[in-house]
Amino acid sequence: MKMEYDIVVIGGGILGLSVAKEIIDKKPEVKLLVLEKENTLASHQTGRNSGVIHSGIYYEPDSKKSEYCIKGGQKIKNYCKKNGIPLKKVGKMIMATGQKDIDVLYFLKKRAEYLGLNHSLLNSAKSKEVEPHAHCIESIFFPDVCITDYAAICQCVKKELEQKGVDVLFSSKVDSVQCDIANSYIQVRGKTYVSKNVINCTGVHADSFLRQDYRKDVRIIPFKGVYWKASAPKISTNLYPVPNLKLPFLGVHFTPTINNEVLIGPNAFLSFDKEGYGNCDFDIKDTYDIFSFSGFWNFFQKNFNACINELKNSSRKSTWKSARLMCPSLAFDAIRYHSSGIRAQAMTKDGKLCDDFVFFSQGNVLNVINAPSPAATSSFEIAKHIVGKIDL
Fold it and tell me: Is-above-0.90 flag for pTM?
């Protein structure tokens, strides 16, 4: 049985739905299908993040991440306001807890000035005025940073798409995608969907649709992050450490959520299962996929100490110790396990982590190869870029 569409989007996270929205807004007559392998939306990266709408401060000013995060963040805020989706301005503080952090903090301040981001450099006393529980020698405060519920945004976009005639199908894991000159043929549980264009927004699984010759050069490596919930103190703003700018991970931080919880985390360490949210999850196929890639071993050799430190810091006690550098009043008994997530991080064969968003076309299929954080914040702007690459 064959069903024909103009475009098929694979993936029902915030990015896949944003792409579908951009397509149908641009050309309402397009026959469009969204395929989601789970029985609900936002089951993975989208529904397992902190809900922060990022400012764009961490990314190189000439990068897609920087541009799309700043523009996309404003679009997300506007969409939430227009559709009554929870949105709360809480701000964000990047904190220098020791003299070793000052050079990078000042570097980030210069970047904030260059990007035109609303911010203030605060001393220790002024930082405490913003967040009484904060402990630092200096900080940069970004007052316009908001939090939201990305899963709620997905539900709203889905409703909008269906009202405009888009088919959104659940429990529809794609078995294969084959292409000829004119069309793509998407196999799903014995059914064949025929489409002129396919957009692959499957996160940690996105490289599984690539030709093997390309997978020798780049592969998606799953990094696991654990969030803990703090019962006290009640932090009112995002508290972030000064980051290691050589790696795309932001360190353990405090995040107030839209549900009035306070999360601490996440750390970042290798996962042996692309959907392994439990403590001891292991998938032999996923593990072989990692260890058979030369890039992983090159990365491990270059970043041995950082890898070992992240593994050591994955425990509750280690997370607590890291968090207490910013909030000394945090008691060990006040934190409990909350949730885990998997970051889909593309890595090249020379062991480098792809620092920017990466898109790769093969025939009629456009693959989103690297879209970790801040992809949720940037999703509407990424979608604009993607749709601009296909012939509607």
Answer: yes
Do 275 and 342 form a contact (C-beta atoms < 8 A)? yes
Per-residue pLDDT tens digits for 66-125: 999 999 999 999 999 999 999 999 999 999 999 999 999 999 999 999 999 999 999 999
Burial of residue 267 (CB within 10 Å: 0-12, 13-18, 19+) is buried
Determine phi and psi for 184, rounding to 5 degrees. -115, 150
Q: State the CB neighbour count (10 A cutoff) for residue 385.
A: 17
> Is 163 in contact with 349 (CB distance < 8 Å)?
no
For residues 313 and 324, the answer to whether their CB atoms sit within 8 Å is: no
In the block, tokens 């409703």 appear at 159
3-state secondary structure 180-242: CCCCEEEEECCEEEEEEEEEECCHHHHHHHCCHHHHCCEEEEEEEEEEEEECCCCCCCEEEEC
Query: In order of start, what are the domains of the chain with their CATH numbers?
Result: 2-387 (3.50.50.60)
Supply angle C-alpha 68, 376, 311, rounded to 5: 110
